[in-house]
Amino acid sequence: MENENQTLNQKKSTRKNKFARATGGGNIFLIIFAALFVAMIARSFTGPVGAPGLLANGQPVAAPIELSFSDVLNRASEIKTMEIRGSDAAGTLTDGTPYTATITYDPELLSQIAQNGATISIDTSKTWVDYLGTWVPILMGLFFIWWIFRGFRGGAAGLGRSLAQQNPTRITTGKTKTTFKDVAGIDSEKQELMEIVDFLKDGKKFRDVGARVPRGILLSGEPGTGKTLLARAIAGEANVPFFAASGSDFSGIIVGLGVAKIKEIFDMAKRNAPCILFIDEIDAIGQRRSTSSYNDQDREQTLNQLLIEMDGFANNTGIIVIGATNRADMLDPALLRPGRFDRQVYIELPDLAGRREILDLYAKKVKVAADVNLQDLARGTTGFSGADLENLLNEAALHAVRNDRTEITAVDVEEARDKILMGPRKVRKMRPQDIKLTAYHEAGHAFVSIMYSDITDPIHKATIIPRGRALGMVQHLPIDDKVSMTIAEVRANLAISLAGRSAEEIFFGPDNITTGAESDIAMATRLARYSITTAGLSDKVGLAAINQVNNFGTRSALENASEKTAEMVDAEVKAWLDAAHADATRMLAKNKETVRKLAEELLARETLTGDEIRAIVSGKSAVQKSAKKSVKKSATKKAKTNATK
User: Fold this and answer.
1) Contact between residue 280 and residue 324 where contact means Cβ atoms under 8 Å apart
2) pTM, whole model, 2 decimals?
3) Catalytic residue list
4) Contact 592, 577 (CB under 8 A)
């Protein structure tokens, strides 16, 4: 017990010493600043020489008058006495009136005043306020220099270490419990990284063969695809320490701070090898160095130190650096060479099977009702990342709670997906004619989608409920992930996109078309231009790739086309869109009554499922179908009531 008390006392004293060392410099600075402040206040309250006082009989002296420098020149003959201290002067005039003035030291002026019989005295002595104002800035400068040079413990590295300690890097340390079981939808990427886990578990079999395990792994991909989660899973699977920091943690306003922090985190990793060192958003310090710019030398020095630590003169065996970024094109080539980041793993957005695995994983953490079809949900979330899918289920859970449900139902999932894709539901006061036009617009999309159902993705639902900027929409549910489209599919999608405008023209006339087809036209134009300028699907333009990809992964329209080619491309895009518009108009004009039924059902019920739309188009009445359902429900309800009675 006595030993434990001694240990506790030693720890307390150590903490006190550390606190004293950390706060000592700041306290001294505070004292000096306080002294300087007091000096300034005292100086401001110290009145000029010759301030009014009291006579011997207790009567106050008359308040002095203030004379300007020109007044002193003009009334030099009236001055009887003058006491000078610095630039302040005070005294009495020949009539006994006291005065104060601010003058400039001028020997000729003083001799002129003295010739008139005035008594002049000059006070050159200094008060404690003057000494304080002189020495405090000097002492502060000397103390600051001492505080800076205190970090030099055997060289310049000591200063950087001291600065790094004053500005610590936020480092996540320890062992993580995340394993590959917690990562779903990226099986090929996990297989690529299993070698790293094997090396960390048993590196001897690699060394016996003479194999060198990658020193660094760069994880790149779209945001939310699981780069950070995968890095934690590697450390958890291998059961080794995990050190994590962000690239922005190595930048600061003090020059040399980034270099010191790089050394600090690598020294920490060396003491705990074998381990995983994870640097998130590594593009913050690993951007490509420029030969013409000298504005960011500190960042380049930080990058140089990172390059040295990863594969310099020292061999950091056992430290595997994992970097994560979604801008791999910005990184310096020296950082990507073998020996540093030997292996680059691009994590793609999950496919249909991957989305199903991710949904199965996250569905275990929430209560999901039996009517939720996760396979259909995976089909309807093309382009969603793992983070998006997790957010979708969370939004569905929140919607279920708001509606006093104890588990997530299909209604909650639909609402969550619509909210993510289009935005929250809007409560708008729309004119009846606008609602009617929206219903016919969406009915046009839905009907043409059914006509092309053998080529395009099956229709999932149509709705006229406003969300975000959209007044309504028609959703399609892909059967599987597509990596390409045929020219027939492209033309079908163009006709579906322009069917809304065609329905407006047919049912309301050319003079009553609206701007509601704005997004449809923009989407159709992008698809047509891509097919013509990049995919080579136009006979007139041919196989020339007019729209090339630049260094940053974006495209510049018609960047390598002549004026003649650009005009031909514009004419071809217009021809494709006109043909698709004519195709949609022809289909709708031949089936006006069917489209009218679709629109009337949308007006009555706001939302129609894919099965209901197909039933109306095939000639069956969705209204009768829904009526039968309601009769069945009411009959069941009555039976239950009678049984209860």
Assistant:
1) yes
2) 0.65
3) 442
4) no
